[in-house]
Amino acid sequence: MTDSDEPLPQHLAELGRRVLVRVVERPGGGRELALDLLAADAFVTYAFEAQAEADVAGLATLAERVAGART
C-alpha cells in the first residue's frame, strides 16, 4: 500500500495523470518535457502492471478511469 488510501494501481495512475497535466500545461515546451512525458507514461504503465498482478478483472475499470480522467 502507498501513503495514500488508494490501491497502488489507482495511485500510480493518478501520479501519471498529474505529470501529464504538467506537460499539457506547457504547450510551448519542447524537448525539456520529454522526461516528464516518459515519466507519465511509466506511471500509467506501472499502474496497469500493478492492476494485472492484483486483479486482472479490474483492468477495464482502470482503463476507463485513466481514459476518463479530467482535470
Question: What would you say about this model in short?
Answer:
It is built from three helices and no strands. The chain has helices at 8-24, 34-54, 59-68.
Explained architecture:
- The protein is mostly helical.
- It has three helices and no strands.
- The longest helix has 21 residues, at 34-54.
- The radius of gyration is 13 Å and the shape is elongated.
What structural class do the secondary elements suggest?
mainly alpha
**SSE string, helices as H and strands as E:** HHH
Amino-to-carboxy terminus distance = 25 Å
The rough form would be described as elongated
Q: How confident overall, as mean pLDDT?
A: 90
Q: How much helix is in the residues?
A: 55-70%
Radius of gyration: 13 Å
What fraction of residues sit in β-strands? under 5%
Instruction: Please give the count of helices.
Output: 3
As residue ranges, the low-confidence spans are none
Number of domains: 1
Number of strands: 0
- Main sheet specs: none
Distinctive features:
mainly alpha, 71 residues, single chain
Secondary structure blueprint with pairings:
Blueprint (H helix, E strand, L loop, with lengths): L7 H17 L9 H21 L4 H10 L3
Helix pairs in contact: 1-2, 2-3
